[in-house]
Amino acid sequence: MLKRFIFCSLLFIGVSSAFAQKEEVFTGILVDSATFSPLPFVSVRVKNSMRGTSTDIQGNFSISATQRDTLVFSLVGYQTIEQSCWNWEPSVIRMTEKGILLKEVTIESTVIDPYAGMFDDENAKIAHRKLPFYLSKTKKQKRKLVWLREDNLRAKTYVDVVINNPETKTRLMKQYSLTEDEYYNLLGQFNAKNYTVMYYLTAGELVTILNNFYEKNAPRK
Questions:
Q1: Per-residue pLDDT of the chain (221 residues; tens, 9 = 90+)
Q2: What are phi and psi of 91, to 5 degrees?
Q3: Residue 95 is inside which H or E element, if any?
Q4: Phi/psi at 14 (5° precision)
Q5: Distance of alpha carbon 150 from alpha carbon 123, whole angstroms
Q6: Where is 63: in which H helix or E strand?
Q7: d(CA 70, CA 85)
Q8: 3-class DSSP state of 81
Q9: Do 31 and 59 contact (CB within 8 A), yes or no?
């Protein structure tokens, strides 16, 4: 009697297991939870297995699995869903978009000086030039006169545009509503900032960076 009972029990368990493990086709539709728009190309796979598929252009899918399996639905930009196949009924499955929190980014505009560093080598040569010790006093004086003429030529454009041309001063004072003290104060700042390059600039280049400097630094009234 006992043997018969054990045999029947094992037979029942075996039949139940076979039934539970029987594969069937599971179908459904994947849509956006907010708009109910069909979601194509959603990855549909059986969890812990190599079996998988994807939704078609209308969001439909079908996949073979057992009722003991779990289906995993994933799509870039959406939260992944896991759903048991137990008592599965074809239905519409809604997927929710992921909220992506981005770090705060501060954008600052920086005016790039196109002449920065361009004449560093030349300025270094001028700053460190020395007269050879073996030159006679006369030759040293001649060499110094040559350097003086070169310096004057380098400064000539600045002198012509800024110092000897009253229109430059008048125009800038009028354009930015400056007093004479304000004009010269800004000019001093400009000279201090651009002394390494302004003697090498053409008249047009000098006027351009001078205008840009006043526009940026003139007091707002």
A1: 545 544 455 454 554 555 457 899 999 999 998 888 899 999 999 999 999 999 999 999 999 999 999 999 999 999 999 999 998 888 889 999 886 656 666 656 555 555 555 455 556 666 566 777 677 778 777 777 766 666 666 677 877 888 788 898 899 999 989 998 898 888 888 888 877 776 777 888 888 888 888 999 988 86
A2: -155, 175
A3: strand 91-95
A4: -65, -45
A5: 13
A6: strand 60-65
A7: 6
A8: strand
A9: yes
- Euclidean distance between CA atoms 182 and 189, whole angstroms: 11
Tokens at 21, concatenated: 């493990």
Distance CA 149, CA 147 (A): 5
CB 65 within 8 A of CB 47: no
pTM, entire model = 0.40
Q: Which amino acid is at 113?
A: D
How many whole angstroms separate alpha carbon 190 and alpha carbon 212? 10
**What is the torsion angle, in degrees rounded to the nearest 10, for the CA atoms of residue 151, residue 153, residue 154 and residue 157?**
140
